[in-house]
Write a structure and sequence with these properties.
Helix 5 packs antiparallel against helix 10 (346-371). The protein is globular and about 70 Å long. It has helices spanning 59-67, 100-119, 139-155, 166-175, 225-236, 256-261, 273-281, 289-300, 304-321, 346-371, 389-398, 412-422, 425-428, and strands at 10-14, 19-25, 31-33, 42-44, 46-50, 56-58, 72-76, 90-93, 96-99, 125-130, 160-165, 182-189, 194-201, 215-221, 325-328, 341-344, 378-382, 403-406. It is α+β, with helices and mostly antiparallel strands. The longest helix has 26 residues, at 346-371.
Length: 431
């Protein structure tokens, strides 16, 4: 937006599968990354509908209430539902039903409220990040996903909205820190998607509104942190509940219940009356009744999010330290004094995620190939899942001549969206 028309503040919003962030440039052109969750600049994309107080909690408060045993309903990974028929479906929260679309609106309203509270002024203009592909290989559903997101933002109170690709936004943030002309592969590994852009960067051109000539290629794949969580959950925790268990007649137990229980945005489907009845009927398929008891305890106690939260934490701890990390599962035990842990090791994580990370790296290499460049100067990593050690190692091996730069995992995209908004993105962003 032109500098002379800065009366209307432009907010950059990174609406993420796992975490969301927001930023803007103030009247002096200085970047302000909004503190959305206490002192944290990222807020978990989560809502909790409390059955005890009949209130709605957001972000870390939502997660804390759920994990501390407050009666209610936790919802996460809402972004994964964009472009699907589920958006218009209703789901039970306490004694009422609400559309998934309206839950997205509630989250946007809360994010807007928190930003306005900190900034001290109303905000009507927003630049929202979007992945290269909301939905792989389906242009109609991809357009629908962006349309739904725009409609939700408008119902939350934003009057003028533009979109920018998340990896391009990350590039605009990285450009503030390069000394001169450079080529970069931007690697944005979020909760639900992995997106890539090859772009020419130069701080001398950072204020140019239309940078389309500098964008050499974009690619993306619908794989991200929540997929990695699901795979690790299935390989480490779910076998303790019967996944891949050879039951009566030496036949494997049906696995659909385990896939739903390990997928952030499908967990709620595991708790329906029909799903619980199906799980109970599986008792005859189990040769080991202890496994079935654990499965039913996880379902009847609605522990799916708690299990996945533990897996996610162990994944992060193992990535950072390189040491084994445990997922505490004592809440699934029946006998007094019983102790139950699942373990994530560097080797286990690498083996479990090998195929998925191979797809991510192939998509990154395809982006460089599509750009026409023989190689890039830098590989810039951003997004909440970009710190995954097996991924960093795989990218380094695939592009040994490039400098690997670890960027702002949670705030980089939001910052880039803020720069885009300040430099006229409403004329040149995606609509």
């Amino acid at each position: 937006m032109p500098r002379e028309d800065r009366a209307a503040l432009v907010l950059g919003i990174d609406f993420g599968t796992s975490n969301s962030a927001a930023a803007m440039l103030d009247a002096d052109g200085a970047l302000q990354v909004i503190r959305l969750d206490g002192e944290r600049t990222e807020m978990p994309t989560a809502l909790f509908f409390s059955s005890e107080t009949h209130t709605i909690l957001y972000a870390s408060e939502a997660l804390h209430a759920y994990l501390s045993g407050v009666e209610g309903r936790l919802l996460r990974s809402l972004k994964s539902l964009l472009g699907s028929r589920l958006m218009d479906e209703y789901t039970a929260v306490g004694d009422r039903s609400i559309r998934f679309f309206d839950i997205v609106v509630l989250f946007f309203k809360e994010l807007k409220r928190r930003c306005e509270l900190q900034i001290g002024a109303p905000i009507q203009h927003a630049v929202i990040g979007r992945p290269v592909h909301f939905v792989d290989d389906d242009l109609a559903r991809d357009r629908l996903a962006q349309d739904i997101l725009e409609r939700a933002a408008r119902e939350a109170g934003f009057g003028q909205i533009a979109f920018q690709l998340e990896p391009i936004a990350a590039a605009l943030d990285y450009e503030q820190r390069v000394a001169g002309e450079t080529s970069a592969l931007i690697v944005d590994i979020g909760g639900g998607t992995s997106d890539f852009t090859v772009i020419r960067l130069n701080p001398a051109r950072s204020s140019v509104a239309n940078r389309s000539s500098d964008i050499l290629a974009t690619t993306g794949v619908h794989l991200g942190g929540t997929d990695f969580d699901r795979m690790l959950d299935l390989s480490t925790v779910m076998p303790m509940l019967g996944y891949n268990h050879l039951g009566t007649g030496n036949r494997p137990v049906p696995n659909s219940v385990f896939f739903e229980l390990s997928t952030w945005h499908l967990i709620h489907q595991s708790y329906t009356r029909k799903a619980l009845h199906f799980a109970k009927e599986l008792r005859a398929d189990f040769a080991d009744p202890a496994l079935h008891r654990r499965l039913m305890h996880a379902l009847e106690g609605q522990h799916g999010h708690r299990i996945l939260t533990g897996v996610e934490a162990a994944k992060i701890a193992c990535s950072i330290s390189g040491q084994n990390a445990s997922v505490g599962l004592d809440f699934l035990c029946h006998s007094p004094g019983e102790h139950l842990d699942a373990w994530i090791t560097s080797h286990k994580m690498g083996e479990t995620l090998r195929t998925a990370l191979g797809e991510v790296v192939q998509c990154a290499q395809a982006c460089v190939l599509r750009s026409g460049l023989p190689k890039v100067d830098a590989v810039y990593l951003t997004g909440g899942s970009s710190a995954l050690r097996p991924l960093i190692d795989a990218l380094g091996a695939a592009m040994p001549d490039a400098t690997l730069v670890e960027g702002n995992r949670f705030g980089g995209v939001a910052a880039g969206l803020a720069y885009a908004g300040a430099h006229g993105c409403f004329q040149h962003a995606l609509h």
